[in-house]
Design brief:
With 258 residues, the protein is mostly helical. The chain contains twelve helices and no strands.
Length: 258
């Protein structure tokens, strides 16, 4: 019988269909990886608190984000997928940072008082809806604490104050600490320019400058690294076993430069 034709790896400008044809094991491995991320998050007890609860929430919610990106890529909507990329990337950054600095989970949770106060104020102004007086009093108390905890940073050069943030550690520093600097420019900097109206982002969107393989590379990296992070933080060991080990092996078997 004649030899079967060898599958050719897709080029950097490949469409989604060309990509999965060139890497036939990619989608099954990624699908199992995303399921594994959700399963590991759900294994964390519901009564968990602090860093364990925050990391489970952040990583578990990444599963849906990554699935949405794949759906858009599968429909050749790469620009749309790129817009969604920053969300799971930041969730991974925060999870990685908190896993190394568990005490920072409290800052992440406390900062909700700042964000919820602004959200509820908008709801009240536009829809004339208020939460209960008890809820308002509790939120006001938490907001006052958060205001004192998260000070605005004043620029030494111009004197202007920036917005409050839950941590002074920059995304760049988190990426370096997590050793995923290779995807930071696309998943954070470029994705931000596409999310917010900017000339650079608009130009790239109209010219379709970012192709499916680049986005799928980030999805691969985030899937693989998230599974590792969850296992090491929740199981407290670097030795992966059971079904998770099989998922990791299948991801590693994908000859794809992540």
């Amino acid at each position: 019988m004649p030899d079967e034709p060898k599958t050719q790896p897709p080029h950097p400008d490949a469409t989604f269909a060309e990509f999965v044809s060139g890497f036939p094991t990619f989608m099954p491995a990624i699908a199992d990886g995303i399921t594994c991320i959700l399963d590991q998050a759900l294994e964390v007890p519901g009564e968990a608190t602090g860093a364990e609860m925050v990391i489970a929430s952040l990583t578990g919610s990444m599963a849906e984000d990554l699935q949405d990106i794949l759906i858009l890529c599968g429909n050749e909507r790469t620009n749309g997928a790129l817009k969604l990329l920053r969300t799971p990337y930041e969730k991974f950054l925060y999870s990685s940072h908190i896993s190394r600095h568990p005490e920072s989970a409290g800052d992440f949770l406390q900062f909700d008082a700042i964000q919820s106060t602004a959200l509820l104020a908008g709801i009240q102004d536009h829809w004339n809806y208020k939460i209960s007086e008890k809820g308002q009093a509790k939120l006001a108390e938490q907001y006052k604490i958060a205001q004192g905890r998260f000070k605005r940073t004043k620029c030494k050069e111009c004197g202007e104050s920036g917005p409050r943030t839950w941590t002074k550690v920059t995304p760049e520093q988190m990426a370096k600490e997590a050793e995923i600097e290779d995807i930071h420019v696309l998943a954070y900097r470029y994705a931000t320019l596409v999310i917010h109206p900017s000339f650079r982002g608009i130009s790239g969107q109209t010219s379709q400058v970012i192709k499916a393989p680049a986005v799928l590379g980030v999805v691969y990296k985030l899937t693989f690294e998230t599974i590792k992070l969850q296992w090491m933080f929740f199981k407290k060991t670097v030795t992966v076993t059971g079904k998770t080990a099989e998922v990791v092996r299948n991801l590693q078997a994908v000859s794809f430069p992540a």
